[in-house]
Amino acid sequence: MKYLALLIIAAGLLLPLISVSQTVMYDVMVAGRVIGSVKVLLYENTSKTIKHRIEAQFSIPFYSGSFSSENDFLEGNLQSSVTEHFVNGKQKESTRTSNRHPQLYHVSFSGKATDYGKLKELNQTINHTMTGLYYQEPSNVGMVYSERYGQMCPVKKLDESRYGVVLPNGKQSIYAYRQGLCTEVQSELAGMKLRIVRRWNQLAVK
Q1: Which domain of life is it from (predicted)?
Q2: Among 112, 110, 115, 76, which Cα is nearest to 95's?
Q3: For 111, left (φ over 0), alpha (ψ -120 to 50), or beta?
Q4: Which helix (H) or strand (E) holds 39?
Q5: What are phi and psi of 77, to 5 degrees?
Q6: pLDDT by residue (tens digit) across 118-158?
């Protein structure tokens, strides 16, 4: 019994170490200058469960921030997601989405967002998210879920390797791919146009 208990404890200690296999890095650029980075965590998923997580940080004069988004899927369906946005060390907003039962989600908002303190329900299936666009090219995907805004967003194929996603705020983010891998994202931050560019040959073991 003693050895069994030690084995269980050891397994519990090792699990977090092997849950993330690699990290893919991106540079956040404004006008050709690197102002931050995005980490895309590659988890050792199973045939039924999938975890996605991205972590971003950036810094410009008088303004620094970070953003994270995490998804958990079970058999292809989103089970939960959490996004957090910090500016100058303080939380600006957070959105949590949880699956209550098939095709029903609760979405809660906190922070300074327009929907602060609100709780809404989504009665639909969610199979694809904005975070997932860093992991897989959205071939034949018409809608993705914005974990930050708690809404579905249309995906439009622009050419052979680029896709546009119209956000609830009316702005469009453009995702480019090469051989199924996300190579670049064009977006906006505080009114500035961003390029989020993948660093090649820089996979790191977590």
Answers
A1: Bacteria
A2: 110
A3: left
A4: strand 33-43
A5: -110, 135
A6: 788 999 999 999 999 999 999 999 999 999 999 999 999 99
pTM, to two decimals: 0.84
Every domain of the chain and the residues it spans: 20-77+127-205
State CA 154 to chain mean position distance. 17
Q: Which of 135, 193, 185, 191 is nearest to 165 (CA)?
A: 185
Task: Please say whether the dihedral angle defined by the alpha carbons of residues 21, 82, 200 and 58, taken in this order, is positive or negative.
Answer: negative
- Our CA dihedral for 130, 136, 139, 144, rounded to 10 degrees, sits at -10
Tokens 């208990």 belong to residue: 5
